[in-house]
């Protein structure tokens, strides 16, 4: 399975492409048609490299990405619908007659499972994201880093869609390049305790 920078599952075959991700020319990034256009806010997206891994300390990824239970609910559904809690228990709306929460407890970060990454590159050392920063869509610095929406020098990254416009149109106050370490911003020392 392959995924876009936004974490959306790619279709295995689409158009003339039979290997998930294809590029129209050697100068273009490989793209894929996504299984769920609502995930990407578009029909297609730029593919993550096969060797891609999250770059932030304590990042959690659902493992395997794209998992769904036998009824088709994803980890995102489990979180949004409160089927589980972050400490690995059944959530407030989970009904006993449904049985055990099951694999979601080991697969989904929102349910206390998933896979933690422990890599923190040197350009993050001593840098702290502005606490509570979010863009107009509610996406925070972690999403910008994990989705590669920006580069460490404050420019749009591989995961950013040209159709989304400029960073300034996505924030009322600070932009991601001002607030987020992954985008070249953030703070030199931690927030006041």
What does this 3D model show about the protein?
The structure is a single chain. With 193 residues, the protein is largely without helices or strands. Helix content is 12%, strand content 6%. It has 5 helices and 4 strands, in the order βαββααβαα. The strands form 2 sheets. Strands 1-2 form a two-stranded antiparallel ribbon. It has a two-stranded antiparallel sheet with strand order 3-4. The radius of gyration is 18 Å and the shape is globular. The chain starts with 30 loop residues before the first strand and ends in a 14-residue tail after the last helix. Mean pLDDT is 79; it is low at 118-125.
Please give the structural blueprint.
Blueprint: E1 31-33, H1 37-40, E2 44-46, E3 59-61, H2 75-80, H3 104-107, E4 115-117, H4 141-146, H5 176-179
Antiparallel strand pairs: 1-2, 3-4
Name some characteristics of this structure.
4 strands; globular; little secondary structure
């Amino acid at each position: 399975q392959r995924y876009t920078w936004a974490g959306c599952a790619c279709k295995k075959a689409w158009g003339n492409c039979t290997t998930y991700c294809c590029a129209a020319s050697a100068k273009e990034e490989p793209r894929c048609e996504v299984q769920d256009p609502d995930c990407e806010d578009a029909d297609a997206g730029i593919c993550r490299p096969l060797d891609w891994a999250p770059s932030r300390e304590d990042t959690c990824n659902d493992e395997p990405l794209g998992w769904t239970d036998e009824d088709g609910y994803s980890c995102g559904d489990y979180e949004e619908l409160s089927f589980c809690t972050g400490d690995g228990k059944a959530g407030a709306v989970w009904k006993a007659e449904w049985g055990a929460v099951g694999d979601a407890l080991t697969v989904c970060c929102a349910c206390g499972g998933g896979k933690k990454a422990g890599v923190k590159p040197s350009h993050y050392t001593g840098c702290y994201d502005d606490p509570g920063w979010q863009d107009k869509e509610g996406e925070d610095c972690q999403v910008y880093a994990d989705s590669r929406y920006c580069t460490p020098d404050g420019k749009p990254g591989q995961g950013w869609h040209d159709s989304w416009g400029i960073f300034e149109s996505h924030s009322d106050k600070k932009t991601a390049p001002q607030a987020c370490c992954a985008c070249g911003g953030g703070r030199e020392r931690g927030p006041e305790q």
